[in-house]
Amino acid sequence: MSDSSSFDNYCIVELFGHQKIVGRVTEQVIGGQTFIRVDVPPTKRYPEFTRMFGSGAIYSITPVSEDIARAAAERVYAEPVTVYIEPSHQLPVNNDNDDFDDDDDNNNFNGDDDTREFD
């Protein structure tokens, strides 16, 4: 196992929120903050990817061999990216294209009085 100043091991990382991720773990400094970098090996479900975690997100780290890490990565379904947009922050969908009908000869966009009749 490596010394603590240059940690570089395959590990099973348990995160708060009952999540796990498996891969090669190193440290990386971004903006003066140290993060745990997990390089997840390719699996049958996903290509290889990297995720980074602050120390407050980690519950435990278990160093394992590369073979065990690769086998565990097949069983732990960590996703490369999780995208969630809260419904209240989504833009409304307008499927009514009548507002943008360029074929309407009654459109008057030159500033003159609008003489169209409405139902």
Give the number of helices.
1
Question: Which oligomeric state applies?
Answer: single chain
What is the radius of gyration?
Answer: 26 Å
Give the neighbour order of strands across the main sheet. 4-3-2-1-5
Largest sheet: 5 strands, antiparallel
Mean pLDDT: 81
Question: What are the low-pLDDT stretches, counting only 5+ consecutive residues below 50?
Answer: none
Shape: elongated
Quote the distance from N terminus to C terminus: 79 Å
Describe the structure.
The chain has 119 residues and is mainly beta. It is 8% helix and 34% strand. The protein has a five-stranded antiparallel β-sheet with strand order 4-3-2-1-5. Strand 3 and strand 4 form a beta hairpin. The longest helix is centred in the middle third of the chain and has 10 residues. The protein is elongated, with a radius of gyration of 26 Å. The N and C termini lie far apart (79 Å).
What is the element layout, followed by pairings?
Blueprint: E1 8-15, E2 19-30, E3 33-40, E4 49-53, E5 58-64, H1 66-75
Give a brief outline of the structure.
This protein is mainly beta. Helices cover 8% and strands 34% of the residues.
